[in-house]
Amino acid sequence: MATWFTFLPSFLFIFAGAPVIETTHRQPHLTAPLTGITAAVVGVIANLAVFFAVHVSGPTGCTATWNGRRY
Fold first, then answer.
1. What DSSP element (H or E) covers 66?
2. Contacts of residue 62, Cβ cutoff 8 Å, sequence gap at least 6
3. What Rg, from alpha-carbon coordinates, does the chain have?
4. Three-state secondary structure call for residue 69
5. Cα gap 52→49, rounded to integer Å
6. What are phi and psi of 8, to 5 degrees?
7. CB–CB of 28/34 below 8 Å?
8. H helices present in the chain, as ranges
9. How far apart are CA 71 and CA 69, in angstroms?
């Protein structure tokens, strides 16, 4: 029952909101800002990926110990 009442509202919101979302695909004044927001989110994710890659693979990154030795 807990699973049923946890996920049922999500499915109802999706099925109720899908027709409304579909009508916005043909309206440029709504799709243009969303395109910019999507590009910004992709840029933030890419920036974080590069940041973490540099800090993990750098000279002090990935410092782990095994049998008392530092790697």
1. strand 65-66
2. 56, 71
3. 22
4. strand
5. 5
6. -60, -45
7. no
8. 2-24, 28-57
9. 6
